[in-house]
Amino acid sequence: MPKHRDVARANLENLYRIFTVPEAPDSTLGEIDEAISRDVAGFLQTHIVALERSLEDIEADFFNTAIPEEPTFVSEYTEFVKENLVAQSVHTAAPGFIGHMTSALPYFMLPLSRIMTALNQNLVKVETSKAFTPMERQVLAMLHRLVYRGGDTFYARWIHDSRHALGAFCSGGTIANVTALWVARNRLFAPAGDFRGIAQEGLVRSLKHLGCDGLAVLVSRRGHYSLGKAADLLGLGRDNLVLIDTDDDNRIDLKLLRAEFLRLQEENIRPLALVGIAGTTETGNVDPLAAMADLAAEFGCHFHVDAAWGGPTLFSDRHRSLLSGIERADSVTIDAHKQLYVPMGAGMVVFKDPTALSAIEHHAAYILRHGSKDLGSHTLEGSRPGKAMLVHAGLSIIGRKGYELLIDLGIARAKTFAAMIRQHPDFELTSVPELNILTYRYCPQAVQQKLVLATSLQRTHLNALLDQVNLLLQKEEREAGKTFVSRTRLRLAPYGQELTVLRVVLANPLTTDEILASVLEEQCRIVQHPEIRELMLQVDALCAEIEDGPTAPACAGAR
Amino acid sequence: MPKHRDVARANLENLYRIFTVPEAPDSTLGEIDEAISRDVAGFLQTHIVALERSLEDIEADFFNTAIPEEPTFVSEYTEFVKENLVAQSVHTAAPGFIGHMTSALPYFMLPLSRIMTALNQNLVKVETSKAFTPMERQVLAMLHRLVYRGGDTFYARWIHDSRHALGAFCSGGTIANVTALWVARNRLFAPAGDFRGIAQEGLVRSLKHLGCDGLAVLVSRRGHYSLGKAADLLGLGRDNLVLIDTDDDNRIDLKLLRAEFLRLQEENIRPLALVGIAGTTETGNVDPLAAMADLAAEFGCHFHVDAAWGGPTLFSDRHRSLLSGIERADSVTIDAHKQLYVPMGAGMVVFKDPTALSAIEHHAAYILRHGSKDLGSHTLEGSRPGKAMLVHAGLSIIGRKGYELLIDLGIARAKTFAAMIRQHPDFELTSVPELNILTYRYCPQAVQQKLVLATSLQRTHLNALLDQVNLLLQKEEREAGKTFVSRTRLRLAPYGQELTVLRVVLANPLTTDEILASVLEEQCRIVQHPEIRELMLQVDALCAEIEDGPTAPACAGAR
Predict the structure, then answer these.
(1) ipTM
(2) CB B114 within 8 A of CB A33
(3) CB within 8 A of A203, min separation 6: which ones?
(4) Residue among A434, A441, A442 nearest A506 (CA)
(5) A365 contact B CB<8A
(6) What's the short name of a Pfam family annotated to this entry (chains A, B) (predicted)?
(7) CA distance A192 to B420
(8) What is the pairing mode between strands A497-505 and A331-335?
(9) Domain boundaries defined on chain A
(10) Cα A529 from chain centroid (whole Å)
(11) Which residue of A139, A490, B117, B507 is surrounded by the most CB atoms within 10 Å?
(12) How many Cβ atoms are within 10 Å of B437's Cβ, its own excluded?
């Protein structure tokens, strides 16, 4: 019995130790920690293994589902993390990783993140965040001002108003977009007379109240998939997310948009919101926002701009005008973990009308009491970390001009890369970059020429083969682990059909022209793999049938 | 012109420096960083100012809404952070901060968080997370197993299934609860015959399809406020969140619950979900889960358990049975940033049926393709950080037995504190702790006795005064900054009216009995403040009127 008590005391002491004794600098974890502070790029370079183990192999390391009974030494666990997690993660900061929207981080983000984590504030309420609440309000106001350009008086009036918030800080763009449409829906069905509003009475009664048969959200086919989730979640149904075709430059077709507005009117379906895109996820194009603002006003609906990617273009004197009209949006989404270079998990939505978020205001007895400045009364999420601090840091340290430089650099680099692709005999540019995103595919110029002459059926066959080629190319490049582009499927105007294309996002300032050239070189090497060569021989054979008589083998043979 | 080019080049070089040159160890930020790794408790102790500046004063430091044009030196910014943000934050890790659900963190969480931040993985897709995806799947499976106790064969079958996920990792419990109810809704209105499901067709057509007039969610009055948001968001309306009264122990009243089920049946309103609570936010009580599972089965609705707080009680051999019946829930929410001691921003929801999340499955052309193991196809959120790594670390390093110790310790301490309150002449225990949360109020025993004898009107008056006393007490204690309890308003059975009570959460293992005693001592000092004394004199006067004739001054005078 006394022995049992000794064990219990020893366990308790170990437990306290976990909470009170930091890792020794010479412990494995201490050493990693130190290595990361000294040189994160070097750490990632050294510890992330380039060569891909198959996902199935990796899964074997994460297969045990029983929670360990006994505690493990931190050092032992750290070895596991180093070998099985860090080594097998993705080097998203590598300058050759240009396929997705994750880039290198400014160095100061790491120590500041540690301060944030150590403080462990909870932004849902002032009682667990104190100065972090006014700080987050300031960040939201700064972004609001970037978009809407209000004056000092306006912000002095609203920034710290206890009953309102100029926007909502979110875990990402999806929650930001959902919040925007939620606000739009609740404002459309605001309390009036006997009707107590949709928040209280629900969607069915609300539609009856306004006497309409349905509710729709309009956006171009390039809209982010989060809008589909929002339409589902909010009870509209995906049928009522009206996808409008785009013009040759991936921008919403305004004529078709107007036609859809009219169709909805005829069918007694209320347009809830029109969503403009400032930087489509796949091609980086910007919708004609000013013209869309006109249409939203004409048909009386909320105008939301999804600027999750492109918002920070507003920092650039040279390129700001691309987003002209955004200041007329009722709400705007901007992701901080994208072009504000903040670590993953930071999005925002700002509202033109400083009282808009009242439409989703909520309270509870133990927090979020009326009159408190708790930000949680105006967010979809509850408890939230102090990530706004990192946005605050970025805006303060990098400054408007620093971000401008980053934006200008990325757009310039995209144009350079587009020119390289155009000049290359083996690649076809499939979307002209407006911001810093472009798409292209492996498709030798000779095949491009044949595609123009081909019959519709021949074109379909050729493109199907090229789709397979580009899919394999992207997979093998990813698995080789040296460079990375992503892939998507886009319906491209000249072909009138959906194609598999390679997608490039140029936001990492450490990506050089040489790296871009090396991406194309590596891709040219990869297409020599037997499986792809086999496909290209079929492409050649098909090309040979196009027009009269056989032509010189244009593609695979030419390399 | 060449000068202009020099400036541009210098700017560019500074920009690269931000991304490539780490903070020097002797820089301000480097020093803070080092100080935090060496001794976070000491750092927080030294740098967080205890005495409260008013929020209005703090706001003055966060008032400028113009994004700075020019970059700032990191060192300069760090000084600002230290003086204006860190100093004025809340010491949530302090052992005397027992008012909310944020506790001290195990030390290893900090360096591991830094690794997570440096890797900057995005869990929405394998292409930006690789090993982090199987790791997150493993964490979800571990929590699933903790709740549902499936066997090895079950988990081997489902853990890494590309078409399914055993749960969703979320930014917090709110998103977890919303996800659970979203899944419940979409499963109730699953595609059938011509009906393509609610995700596609929306709520109005779905109700027609099932021929019901509405949709309701049932939960006790102690339900978390996120459920109200969910009812609003999903289109049900808050009217259809049916709040059931509780018994004297803050558990849902089963008779009233059954009566509401029958009422809904009569009104042709379909019960979408019954929500049981395992650890109410305000009082920490656990609903009778097994009996609720029976009712949910009888009336054919989804049974969700919100175990955001209490879920980890399952680690404890001694206390696990309190949650008995949870294994029959269709879905369960558990927050990792609460009793798994992970930094802010980590929640989870697990589903009994491994195919349940198919109800909200979604895809996109550039990611989340059919057949991929991307976790983003089954989450409400899009891009997400690799926080699951910290849960993985906690489960591995602390182990089941370590968490058991933490749980047992908290519950034991709550019982100790409850006894201290009961024995104290000046306080009244207002909810008996079942887990590690309790409520009480300042109400001297003599007043308690009078309250029993008082008429209904007298009781109302007395309680109104006591509400003011406790409100002021909580505010002044918070502002003094030495210790912290929160407050809420609860309708308590013996009084039949809503009262302001003090709320205590005992999850920090560093909170000792001495600290608890000092909280009561401090509160006894605070009630001597003139404003509160004045109120207590009124209480005394009212007490004197109760029953026949004057009684000895029982309260304020007695101290």
Answers:
(1) 0.96
(2) yes
(3) A215, A234, A235, B203, B204, B235, B236, B237
(4) A434
(5) yes
(6) Pyridoxal_deC
(7) 52
(8) unpaired
(9) 2-89, 117-157+164-397, 411-558
(10) 33
(11) A139
(12) 27
User: Among B131, B187, B171, which Cα is nearest to B351's?
Assistant: B187
CA–CA separation, B554 and A241 (whole Å): 67
Question: Residue A363's closest chain B neighbor by CA?
Answer: B225
The chain A residue lying nearest B130, using CA atoms, is A89
CA B144 to chain CA centroid, nearest Å: 19
Across the interface, whether the CB atoms of B23 and A37 are under 8 A apart is answered yes
Instruction: From the options 3.90.650.10, 3.40.50.1820, 3.40.640.10, 3.60.130.10, give the CATH code of A117-157+164-397.
Output: 3.40.640.10
> Under CATH, to which class is B173-336 assigned?
alpha beta
What SS3 state is found at B295?
helix
Inter-chain CB proximity A16 and B405 less than 8 Å: no
- Cα separation, B183 vs B161, whole angstroms: 19
B413-558 folds as Aspartate Aminotransferase, domain 1 (3.90.1150)
Rounded to whole angstroms, the Cα distance separating A517 from B459 reads 82
pLDDT tens-place values along chain B, 559 residues long? 457 778 888 888 888 889 988 888 889 999 999 999 889 999 999 999 877 789 999 999 999 999 999 999 999 999 999 999 999 999 999 999 999 999 899 999 999 999 999 999 999 999 999 999 999 999 999 999 999 999 999 999 999 999 999 999 999 999 999 999 999 999 999 999 999 999 999 999 999 999 999 999 999 999 999 999 999 999 999 999 999 999 999 999 999 999 999 999 999 999 999 999 999 999 999 999 999 999 999 999 999 999 999 999 999 999 999 999 999 999 999 999 999 999 999 999 999 999 999 999 999 988 889 989 999 999 999 999 999 999 999 999 999 999 999 999 999 999 999 999 999 999 999 999 999 999 999 999 999 999 999 999 999 999 999 999 999 999 999 988 899 999 999 988 777 889 999 999 999 999 999 999 999 999 999 999 999 999 999 999 999 999 754 444 444 333 3
Question: What is the DSSP pairing of strand B486-492 with strand B497-505?
Answer: antiparallel
Other CB atoms within 10 Å distance of the CB of residue A471: 15
Q: Tokens 């006591």 label which residue?
A: B466
A372 to A366, B57, B149, B344: CA distances (angstroms): 11, 15, 43, 22
With CB atoms and an 8 Å threshold, state whether B22 touches A37.
yes
Supply φ then ψ for residue A229, to 5 degrees. -60, -40
Residue A373 near chain B (CB below 8 Å): yes
- Same fold? B173-336, B413-558: no
Q: What is the amino acid identity at position A544?
A: A
Amino acid at position A234, single letter: L
Class in CATH terms, A411-558: alpha beta
* Alpha-carbon gap, residue A290 to A297, rounded angstroms: 11
Judging by DSSP bridges, how do beta strands B214-220 and B241-244 pair with one another? parallel
* HSE of B25, CA atoms in CB hemisphere, 13 A: 10
- Cβ distance A100 to B122 less than 8 Å, yes or no, reads yes
DSSP state of A311: G
Contacts of B485 in chain A (CB under 8 A): none
Q: Rounded distance, CA A406 to CA A410, Å? A: 6
Residue to mutate among A9, A18, A39, with most B CBs inside 10 A, is A18
Contact assessment for residue B94 and residue B359, using Cβ atoms and an 8 Å cutoff: no
